[in-house]
Amino acid sequence: MIKIEFTEGEMKALDCERYHHPHPRVQRRMEALWLKSQNISHKQIRKFTGISSNTLTDYLRKYQEYGIEGLKEVKFYQPQSELRQYTTTIETYFREHPPASVKEAMAKIEELTGIKRSENRVREFLKSIGMAPRKVGMIPAKADIEEQEHFIKEELEPRLEEAKSGRRVVFFVDAAHFVLAPFLGILWSFKRLFIKAPSGRKRFNVLGALNAVTHELITVTNDTYINAQSFCDLLRCISRLDIRVPITLVLDNARYQKCKLVWELAESLDIELLYIPPYSPNLNLIERLWKFVKKQCLYSKYYSEFKDFKNAITNCLNQTDTTYKEELDSLLTLRFQRFEKAQVVAV
């Protein structure tokens, strides 16, 4: 039996580390040595800690030679894949030419390295270098990324900072046109399900103004068209809120929002109109609300009557500051998707 003399300080350190060291394997080593310091037999130590005789001997000898610090070293043997030596080559290629499937990645890796591996091995290798299956996003082809960045930094962010401090109220404005048609979503089901397609093309139009900070929603709705008059109605609704600080509406470049009638009324009501750059829906916060409404009450649902369709949308919008407030507060943060560093798939 290996004999070790423990000082009072060593026993206290072992007692502390067996509970508080972050690695469970080190905790077990400390436990074994602490039991040894309490004159517990090797047989009992192995029983209490679940280790073998050889492992216990290894712990004791390591302690004798290196002390507590030696027990803290955690070394694992991990066999390295042959592909590791080609990591840079593979990563460089896939950054420019991302594969659509693991099979495609297998073929390209074999072509680049001469090494053939199974789908599972290739999948694990791709994960190990930081790759994962991700849905491709969309950037409007005519979007000016530099103009977006300038707008965010020079126009939008300063006004939002004022809004957060109560020195301004900022509304994000946009119109949603909900057409009475099937909104196909995803359902957990035992077989593929189908919903009926309503006849006709009736649509319910909602022109909304979303408060950037409180998420209060002001709406003007109709079953015909959103036009300049509709926008003027929204301006009047906002003016009646008796807001005593400057008001800014952030909106897109729809033609009816950039006409003389709208400009003159906005000026008379002392409301600033701030137009986002063309092809920049990612900068309009209210777009996220429209997606939420579709997901909440339209996807995979059938409404036989247009009035039921309108009521479902209206009820959802009416609950934005009650039933759905917590969920929307999480969704409607003032962090905007930016494409400055985005990777665009090459054709």
Automatic annotation (TrEMBL):
Domain Tc1-like transposase DDE, residue spans: 171-309
Q: Which Pfam families match?
A: DDE_3, HTH_23
Q: List the Gene3D superfamilies.
A: Ribonuclease H-like superfamily/Ribonuclease H (3.30.420.10)
The portions of this protein that span the membrane are none
GO terms (molecular function) for this protein are: nucleic acid binding
> InterPro entries, from UniProt?
Homeodomain-like_sf, RNaseH-like_sf, RNaseH_sf, Tc1-like_DDE_dom, Transpos_IS630-like
* Name of the protein described by the UniProt record: Tc1-like transposase DDE domain-containing protein
Organism, scientific name = Candidatus Methanogaster sp. ANME-2c ERB4
